[in-house]
Amino acid sequence: MLLYDNKGFFWLLLNRRGSVFYRWDSLLGGLCVALLGGAVQYMHSSGWENKPEIGHHYGLQALGVAVTFAIVFRTQLAWNRYWEAVTQLHVMYSKWHDAFSQFQGFAEVTLKAAKEKKDEAKIKLIMMKQRRLKLNFALLSAMAAERLSHGDNQLIEDMSRKVRSRHAMRVEKEAEGYQPPAFVERKDFDRGLKKVMSFVLFRKPSPQQMDLLARSNDPVSSVMYWITWDLASVMKELDTAPPIQTRMYQELSNGMLGFNNCLKIADVPFPLPFAQLLLMSLVAFSLLIPLYVIVFTKSLVVGPVLCFFLFESLWCMNEVAKELENPFGQDMNDISLPDFHLRFVDTLESVSHMEQHEMLQMDDIDDTGDSLLRWRG
After folding, report:
1. pLDDT of res. 242
2. CA–CA distance, 54 with 52 (Å, rounded to integer)
3. Alpha helices for the chain (secondary structure H)
4. Dihedral through CA 180, CA 186, CA 187, CA 192, nearest 10?
5. What is the chain's Cα-based Rg?
6. For the residues of 331-344, what is the DSSP string, one character each?
7. What are phi and psi of 314, to 5 degrees?
8. How far apart are CA 166 and CA 170, in angstroms?
9. Which parts of the chain span the membrane according to its record (predicted)?
10. Phi, psi (5° rounding) for residue 201?
């Protein structure tokens, strides 16, 4: 995903990074249409007997209106898919963060009471669950991001845009087997990298975990089950009332709902019949652009230029729609899932940092923060 200053003029006009206008196929198509327009104008200027003529422009106008409406309609639907993907991705991570934060708060209050009672067994259990849940929440995020980045829409692009049925896709994925994503531990991660390709974890999964994930048909649900099991197994040890603890499970469920809404976009493509019909209409209209423009401009300079930009405006708008339809792909304008995952992992570390708990257990923190400064000193 590219961030940019939308208040610029010349920089935005000439920027090539992430642009669909400056792609070689778009420019080549526009150049061919412009050359064809120049050829038509030359035929008219030279008085060729068989030069193309149009008696009335109603047919071309009707086709142009239909193509323009279809492209705008597709672009609107594509933007809705893109924005829905961003929204549900934020919902997913915010809910999982809420669930982890709530457990950390419940666990730390329980730990404080256990330390006062010198209950070593309970202290050991709670701290072990904190470590496990921290590791598994990071793993859950990594598996979810990896699944979204390898949705069926992206797999089709990687297969040279061949057409496949859902059943055929499932058979091929099962035949290939499980391919684990690239992991890197947080302590070894280079934060100076401008492009993150690996998923950052606090600790790489154990061989037993990797074996279970490899045999699972849904690794995200498997990791979610590990988290739910840990929460359920420690529920009676927490000092928080059970009705209050249920909020953690609700937030986990809401996060999974956000994930599945993202998965819907990653796996379900834009309808093939609409995309095919639009492409046919766009190609037909593009071939007729020179004839329509040259007849009215009658200029060897203005005609080809107008042909070029008329083609580019329609063609590039359709290319924008195609990029927006698959927001979890590998294109430059797509959502950066490793970056979202890294921010989530950083949030887990911030919430579980020991200094957070030590500061909250102090009894003499005033509004000026002087006590906190004395404690840190």
Report:
1. 87
2. 7
3. 10-14, 24-46, 58-117, 120-149, 152-158, 166-176, 207-215, 219-233, 242-267, 272-297, 302-325, 337-352, 354-360, 370-376
4. 110
5. 29
6. STTS--HHHHHHHH
7. -75, -45
8. 6
9. 21-43, 55-73, 300-317
10. -130, 160
